[in-house]
Amino acid sequence: MMVKRNSLIFLTAFGLLLTGCSKSGLEITKDDILEVARDDANATKSECENVSIKEQKGSYIVSFNTNGGSYEYKIGKDGIIKERSFKRGAKEESTETEKVEEPVKEETTKKEEEKSSTSFDEGQQQAINSVLANSGLEQSDVSNITCSLDSNTNQYTVTFVLNHVTTTATVDAATFTVISTIFG
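Below the sequence we write its predicted structure tokens.
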């Protein structure tokens, strides 16, 4: 009788474990989405004003203002940036809009692959992968990739070009976490 009771307890515990693990989606909150946008804009919480988050067909539209200008993002519920738009302060009328998921022409991709055929060591490649994943991109989407390690700060600096816009990102060399991203 003791063997049956222990087996029953084990099977019950195992079933509860499986039931708890069956939730397969990540639940991303509006705060998480706002954090993705702020991180991409390299803006702190205190720098952001007029923050707006609206849900729209499987995505969130996030907008806010900083001293540098106004930002608008379309971010999927998976946390991946689909579109970003930046308008500089009132003095300048320049607006930059970038569709992240827009497919690159095949002819251009081949040229860009030839340009970015530089080989990187394992740490550099991991830093590049972190930056690209954070931006919702793949290495074939960008050109002119460079990566260097600053041994004083223990940070990688990754630079690449997408749609004629240069992006520079800083990555912690120990954790491969993207610290900042700067466009232009």
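The two ends are 73 Å apart (CA to CA).
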